[in-house]
Amino acid sequence: MERLRITRASATVFCLTAILLGTVQVVVDRPMLLAERFVPHAGWVEIALLSIYAAWLFGKLARRDRTARWRRRLWSLFSAAFFLQLGLGLAGCERFLMTGKLHLPVPALILAGPIYRGAGLFMPILFLVSALFVGPAWCSHLCYIGAWDNAFAQQRRTPTPLPRWRRTGRFAILAIVVATAFALRSAGVGPGTALWFGAGFGIAGVGIMVFWSRRAGAMAHCVTWCPMSIVAAVMGRISPFRIRIRDTCTLCLACTKACRYDALSAEDIRKRRPGFSCTLCGDCLPACRYRSLVYTFPGLTHERARTLFLILVTALHATFLGLARI
């Protein structure tokens, strides 16, 4: 019965991925799929391969005891594909860049860039649509730089709590980023100078990964520095997916040791819901021997809610992998 359920869900992932990428192939005039840019009509072959990959990957993620491991693998693959194509684009092959123009690979610029330019809403719309479907899981599955923060955090076996001020500090950083973008635009600051502001913010973020996330074992960059994590968390309030803690919880805190997003403190567990920084990554589920942590979706059982979430996030991952360029 379990195998049949996974097979049916995998077929759904295949179809959904093919529909998403097929829509891009047909609707967008400029070739968006990489294969299409090198060989006419080869985009359809790429769509078929990515759809097969998505169906296969769902089967791996469906195993509760392997979800965390495979999530980190798919996330790392997405980040590697993104930055490999960026490197090839910088090396002179412009077909590896989405528009032929270089943009800084700093997540904060998804928000700040359009504010400064007064145009260029493709990335914000893509972000908001994906966040609407899977809420804050954009941060734990689809962000091209979050895998770096995770890699540094994993250097420490057990995460330590981040300071309480970071919960309000992240809103201050969001406000500063937005205000700076408006100020640069209003002052008529040129793109060259604005580029240095964006680069400085990105370099500071990498420094936080190296010196804070690595020592704390928690993803300090993602839950403190990156303003897009706040936007994703707010969008998560609109998305119907949640992780909840059932009454079978014994407060053993095993899930706290598995959470790299500082979202499962003892206080959060007593409230029976993860904190605001939860990204629905699901790493906490296999850590709980009592299966007290569950996905929820209105009208669905916990298992079906988890299956639906994995279908959506896997299809989006494969779609983004095919479009992993800036």
Task: Work out the number of β strands.
Answer: 2
Total DSSP helices = 15
Q: Show unreliable segments.
A: none
- Please trace the helix and strand order, writing H or E for each element: HHHHHHHHHHHHEHHEH
Principal-axis shape equals globular
Radius of gyration: 20 Å
The tally of domains stands at 2
Query: How would you sum up the major sheet?
Result: 2 strands, antiparallel
Could you estimate the helical fraction of the residues in percent?
A: 55-70%
In what order do the strands lie side by side in the largest sheet?
A: 1-2
Average pLDDT level: 90
End-to-end CA span: 42 Å
Class from secondary-structure proportions: mainly alpha
- The share of residues in extended strands comes to under 5%
Can you characterise this structure?
The protein is built from 15 helices and 2 strands. The chain has helices at 2-27, 34-38, 43-61, 67-90, 109-117, 122-134, 137-142, 146-153, 166-186, 191-216, 220-225, 227-236, 254-258, 266-270, 302-322, and strands at 242-245, 293-296. It is 63% helix and 2% strand. The radius of gyration is 20 Å and the shape is globular. α1 runs parallel beside α15. It folds into 2 domains: 1-102 and 300-326, no CATH class; 103-240, no CATH class. It is mainly α and 326 residues long. The longest helix has 26 residues, at 2-27. The protein has a two-stranded antiparallel ribbon.
